[in-house]
Design brief:
By secondary structure, the chain is mostly beta strands. Helix content is about 0%, strand content about 45%. Strands 2, 5, 7, 8, 17, 19, 24, 25, 26, 27 and 30 form an 11-stranded mixed sheet that branches.
C-alpha cells in the first residue's frame, strides 16, 4: 500500500469530520482493460479503520483486506481485486474517510487522462423498481454495467432510447446476481442516445466509453431526476488540442446531489507528479435547486477547488448568492499572504431547475483569470480577475487538488446548504509550463 500525504500537509481544512454521517458500505466497479485505482484518504488527525472485500461477477465474497488509514495519509488498495478480474470492491470504512477511484490512460502523443470511476453508496443508489436514465450514449460506448446491491437476484430491463424519447429497439431483460456487477459488452444501436434501466432490487447502472483517438475513458452515469433524453455532447473546454505532457482529469455525469445527511461532495484530483503549469482550464455543471430555507439570500456553493487547504492555496471559490442579492462571487488566493485574495462579483441570478456551465481559466503566464457562466449553450455572464501565482507558474503538488461541492448544513450563515442541487461533469485540463507541440 502506498502512502500519499506527508505529515506536514494540513489537509484537514476539508472539515470532513465536522459533520459525520452514519457509516455505510460503498462499492467501486473494477473492470478491464483499464485497471481501477482505489484510494482511501484520511484528512483526520487520527487513524481510521476500513475493510475491503472483492465481490466477483457471480456474487459472493472473495479476497478481503482489513487495515487502518494513518492520520493525514492515503492508501492505495492494490491487493483486493485479483489481477485481471472484473467485479466490485465492497468497502466498509469510517465516515471520516474519503473514497476515490480512477482509471488512467495515455494517448500516443503524451496526454495523460485520469477519469473518476463511479463510487456507489446509499446517496446515489437507485431504489428497487426505479428507473435510471443513462443519457448521452455515443459511438465510443463499449459496455453497460448493472450493479445489484439487493439481497436477492435482480431482474433488470434495459431499453435503448432515441433522441425524441422513443424506443430504439426492443427492451432486453438481464438477471444479475445479488451483490454483484454484470457487464453487458457491445455498443448500443446506432440511433440510441440513451438507455432506460430498471431493476427489481436496489441497483446502479452506468456505461463506459473509450475515445478511439485519444484513449480517454469516460463514464455515463444516471441523470438527475427530471432530465430529458439528450444526444451526447462533446466535453466543454476541450476545443483546442492539448499539448504533449498535459494532464486531464474528468469526473463524468452528475456525481453529487446534496440532501439532508449528505451535504458536501468531495473529490480528490490526482496528478502523476508535481506539476508546473502555464494554464489551468476548469469546466463543470451546476443544476440549481432550492435556496436554503434558513437564509435564502445566503451563499450557496458552486465549487471550491484548492491545493489541500484554504490559505494561499485556493484556486477557485465560486458561490451563488440567492434571491434578493442574485450575484455570483468568485475569489482565489494562490500564493498570497494570509487574509488576501482577488475577487469579483458577477451580476447573475441563477434560476432553480436550470443547469449552468462554468468555464474558469487560470492563465499563469498573464496572471489573469477568466470565468464564464452559460445556460442552455448560451453565455450569460463573463468576468475577469487577477491571478497571483509566483513567477508566472501555477504549481500543483504531488498530492494533487481537492474539489468540494456544497456547504455543510451546520456551517454558520451566510454559507448555506444546497439540498436539491446537483454538481457534475467536472473537467480539469492542466497545461504544463514550456509545453511542447499542441497536439493530442
Amino acid at each position: 500500500m502506498k502512502k500519499l500525504f506527508s505529515p506536514a500537509l494540513a489537509v484537514c481544512a476539508l472539515g470532513l469530520a465536522a459533520a459525520p454521517v452514519a457509516a455505510e458500505k460503498v462499492y467501486v466497479p473494477v473492470t478491464q482493460p483499464h485497471a481501477t485505482e482505489l484510494w482511501i484518504s484520511n484528512y483526520d488527525l487520527t487513524e481510521r479503520p476500513y475493510r475491503a472485500t472483492f465481490l466477483g461477477l457471480e456474487g459472493g465474497a472473495g479476497r478481503g483486506v482489513q487495515d487502518v488509514v494513518p492520520a493525514d495519509r492515503a492508501v492505495l488498495l492494490d491487493q483486493v481485486a485479483p489481477a485481471g478480474a472484473t467485479g466490485l470492491v465492497e468497502l466498509e470504512a469510517a465516515p471520516e474517510l474519503l473514497v476515490d477511484a480512477w482509471v488512467t490512460s495515455t494517448s500516443q502523443r503524451g496526454v495523460t487522462y485520469i477519469t473518476g470511476v463511479p463510487v456507489i453508496r446509499g446517496a446515489n443508489l437507485i431504489a428497487a423498481d426505479g428507473t435510471a436514465l443513462l443519457n448521452g450514449l455515443g459511438s465510443g460506448v463499449s459496455d453497460l454495467g448493472l450493479v445489484n446491491l439487493g439481497s436477492g437476484a435482480a431482474s433488470c430491463q434495459v431499453e435503448p432510447v432515441r433522441v425524441d424519447g422513443s424506443a430504439a429497439g426492443a427492451s432486453a431483460v438481464f438477471e444479475v446476481a445479488a451483490a454483484s456487477l454484470r457487464r453487458l459488452e457491445g455498443a448500443p444501436d446506432a440511433d440510441a442516445v440513451a438507455a432506460k434501466v430498471s431493476c427489481d432490487q436496489p441497483f446502479y447502472a452506468y456505461a463506459t466509453a473509450v475515445d478511439a483517438e485519444t484513449s480517454e475513458v469516460s463514464f455515463v452515469l444516471p441523470s438527475p431526476a427530471g432530465e430529458a433524453v439528450a444526444a451526447p455532447a462533446r466535453a466543454k473546454g476541450n476545443e483546442d488540442d492539448l499539448p504533449a505532457g498535459a494532464v486531464v482529469f474528468n469526473q463524468n455525469g452528475f456525481f453529487h446531489s446534496p440532501a439532508r445527511g449528505n451535504d458536501k461532495g468531495v473529490l480528490r484530483i490526482p496528478v502523476p507528479r508535481e506539476l508546473s503549469l502555464s494554464r489551468l482550464n476548469i469546466d463543470w455543471d451546476v443544476k440549481v435547486g432550492p435556496w436554503s430555507k434558513r437564509k435564502p439570500d445566503g451563499s450557496h456553493a458552486m465549487m471550491w477547488l484548492h491545493r489541500g487547504r484554504f490559505r494561499s492555496n485556493t484556486v477557485a471559490n465560486v458561490n451563488a448568492w440567492g434571491l434578493n442579492k442574485r450575484f455570483i462571487k468568485v475569489n482565489q488566493n494562490l500564493d498570497l499572504p494570509p487574509r488576501k485574495n482577488t475577487n469579483i462579483s458577477v451580476k447573475l441570478g441563477v434560476e432553480q431547475g436550470k443547469t449552468y456551465h462554468v468555464r474558469y481559466v487560470y492563465d499563469a503566464l498573464s496572471r489573469s483569470i477568466n470565468v464564464a457562466f452559460s445556460e442552455g449553450g448560451q453565455v450569460q455572464r463573463t468576468g475577469r480577475l487577477p491571478g497571483t501565482v509566483k513567477n508566472h507558474v501555477l504549481r500543483i503538488p504531488k498530492t494533487g487538488l481537492v474539489a468540494e461541492f456544497g456547504h455543510y448544513s451546520t456551517q454558520h450563515p451566510p454559507e448555506m446548504e444546497t439540498w436539491g442541487w446537483a454538481y457534475g461533469n467536472l473537467r480539469i485540463e492542466m497545461i504544463p509550463k514550456n509545453a511542447g507541440s499542441r497536439r493530442r
